[in-house]
Design brief:
The chain is mainly alpha-helical and 367 residues long. The chain is built from twelve helices and four strands. It has helices at 3-26, 65-84, 88-94, 111-135, 138-145, 151-154, 176-200, 205-224, 247-273, 282-304, 323-346, 360-366; strands at residues 32-38, 45-49, 58-64, 158-160. The chain has a four-stranded mixed β-sheet with strand order 1-3-2-4. The protein is globular, with a radius of gyration of 20 Å.
């Protein structure tokens, strides 16, 4: 696809989604959701609350053409990387117990189908992440946290994928709350995308399986695109001095959500309706998502063109294997408990199942 075709395609998809969201949610509440495509020469997406006293639900999501084009370009390069089998030796090593790993490009998908589906997976997840900031009204929580009362000051708050901008001196030395808001937004975006995948591929188990794989690749593609050498030496403790969680920490939180929900859905659909939405057991679902992020980690390691000792910097930080991650997550769990009920109360699209929660297993592990 040519550049203008990629941009037109992305605009058409997102504008259609915004029209539906406005019709179902914003307009009945006297509000409006706007989507704006920026020519800023930076890969970025951000959410803004531009409400007034008379229009309390006036929200705006901005996505740059630079981000759109880079996502599609990376999807094409990723496809060519998989097709070349350049790292087949690595794949053989990582997936030696995964009998389906050779299906890294779903059967019957040509290059355009693969790239479009991968591009849309990344783009829509980013869109729903930004929408989650608005839907859960993280802006209101920020104003409470930093005691902002002036409306014009509150409207200068931007949830930005590059940097969390608060245009006033808050005197904060860390961004712990900001990290929690990002995880809340990642969680809602992931749950919404899971629901959409099931809705679209309810009667086609094999295609749903393909789309789970491609969606995991898409989220990985989106987050790995923000991973760079600047992050290599940042510890999890020090990461709280940065506006966002480290990209691979975010991915490490998303993958278990996919594993958990698709495993539950596969089991529940059989018990309730007598048919399987997925012909996979939990182990196979874990292998499927594992396949997606591992090939991405190798791909982005190659893109970075760094020595093999840096490969670990492209690996997901594991909850069960990393003590520093447990300490980091302990703070996130505690902070999320402070915000969860407030978020449920103030959601515009009311659905408590899209509000991040942690299992007893995780709590017992870190608290």
């Amino acid at each position: 696809m040519e550049t203008f075709e990629i941009c037109q395609f992305a605009e058409s998809v997102l504008r259609t989604m915004v029209l539906e969201i406005n019709k179902e949610t914003y307009i009945p509440n006297g509000g409006i959701l706007q989507i704006y495509f920026s020519r800023e020469e930076i890969k970025n997406a951000y959410a803004q609350n531009i409400s007034t006293e008379s229009s309390p639900f006036n929200h705006k999501i901005t996505i740059t053409y630079e981000l759109i084009c880079s996502l599609y370009e990376n999807a094409v390069i990723f496809h060519n990387y998989l097709e070349s089998e350049f790292d087949k030796k690595h794949f053989d090593f990582y997936f030696k117990e995964d009998v389906n790993y050779n299906d890294l490009i779903p059967e019957k998908w040509n290059q355009e189908q693969f790239c479009k589906n991968l591009f849309l997976a990344a783009l829509t997840w980013i869109f729903f992440h930004e929408l989650a900031h608005l839907n859960q009204n993280h802006f209101k929580l920020v104003t409470r946290t930093y005691k902002l009362n002036d409306l014009s000051t509150r409207n200068n708050i931007i949830f930005d994928e590059i940097i969390f901008l608060i245009k006033f001196d808050n005197g904060q030395s860390t961004f712990t709350d900001n990290h929690v808001f990002e995880f809340f937004a990642d969680y809602e975006a992931t749950i919404i995308c899971i629901s959409e995948l099931i809705r679209h591929f309810y009667d086609d188990s094999k295609e749903l399986e393909n789309m789970i794989y491609i969606f995991t690749c898409g989220v990985s593609l989106a987050l790995y695109s923000f991973q760079n050498k600047d992050y290599f030496e940042i510890s999890l403790e020090d990461s709280f001095t940065y506006s966002h969680p480290l990209p691979l920490v975010r991915l490490g939180m998303v993958i278990p959500i996919l594993n958990e929900f698709f495993s539950l859905i596969a089991k529940a659909s059989y018990e309730i309706e007598g048919k399987k939405l997925l012909n996979l057991d939990r182990k196979e679902i874990v292998q499927l998502t594992n396949r997606a992020w591992v090939v991405n980690s190798l791909f982005w390691w190659r893109i970075a063109n760094v020595p093999s000792e840096f490969l670990k910097n492209f690996q997901i930080i594991g909850l069960l294997s990393d003590e520093d991650f447990k300490q980091y997550l302990k703070l996130i769990v505690k902070k999320s408990d402070e915000f969860r009920e407030k978020i449920i109360e103030q959601q515009l699209i009311r659905n408590q199942f899209t509000v991040m929660t942690f299992t007893d297993q995780v709590r017992n592990l870190v608290l």
